[in-house]
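Hey,
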Amino acid sequence: MSQKKARVTLKQVAEHAGVSRATASLIVRNSPSISEPTREKVLASMEELGYVYDRVAANLRGQSSTTVGLIITDIANPFFNELLVGVHNRLEEDGYTVILGTTFDMENKQQKLISTMMEHRVGGIILCPVSDSSSINVEELQRWNLPIVTAVREIEGLACDYVGINYAEGAQMAVEHLINKGHQRIAFVGGNSESSAWQNRKKGYMLAHKKAEIEVDESLIVESSAERSGGVESIERVLEESDPPSAVFCFNDLVAFGVIEGLRRAGYQPGKDVAVVGFDNVEESATLSYPSLTTISSHAKVIGSKAADLLHQRINNNEVEQQRIILHPDLVIRESS
């Protein structure tokens, strides 16, 4: 007696045609977003493999999912740990399960995570975009009518819900604090200029100088990775200046920790010889940093909670008006300045 032939899956069709499962799924649903050559290639694979569209399974998949995706750039950054807590605490109230993905600030990894989460049929995604994100891969989500909320960084030209902090206001507060302490040469170090978060921090840095009528020395603005190692590298560069800065404003607290380390290596006493201000107010800035770090509180848990709340609203009604929530930062003064 012959065995029953196993049903050909859409994943097998996609692999045979050399496309993603998400693309194959769009084709069986007659999506107009797929090019005709790709459509013909996938249809040919379906015919060759004997694929039969499982309408019952498709209807089941169409039901609202209680799984949502959270995509962040760096799990090692305590800021994102706190944001995750805010997301998890809020969504747990409504019975959601959160799938976490990390891009390491690489757009190809971001695209792969988005595709994977779509293939696993999440009910929606909270995306903390990579520095140089384009709107292309996120627009794919919107074509699927999949709810999405961006957080922390905005993608220029993309119309979707967003939650973040007023980075320009926070940077201006930090630099004005240093100016009020008598500093005239203030470096701005760390981060990637392609990021909207960096651009807005620079805006605040420039505004504080303009308000105080202090000329900005562009050589004191140094980009680096937004990590401790980036802080070490960037402070080494600015200390090579013939007239080094007396204070440093850092892209985030991780960079600030690196700056403090780099200053010590160079024989400076952080907080006395050179003032240091960070951004984010992660827990370690008060408990583990020596000296304790003056910083800007960017309310990571609140951002996570509000992003989760927006996603929950959009999952339940994708026709609601888009929202842009901007939180106000706080200056937390400690020993480093």
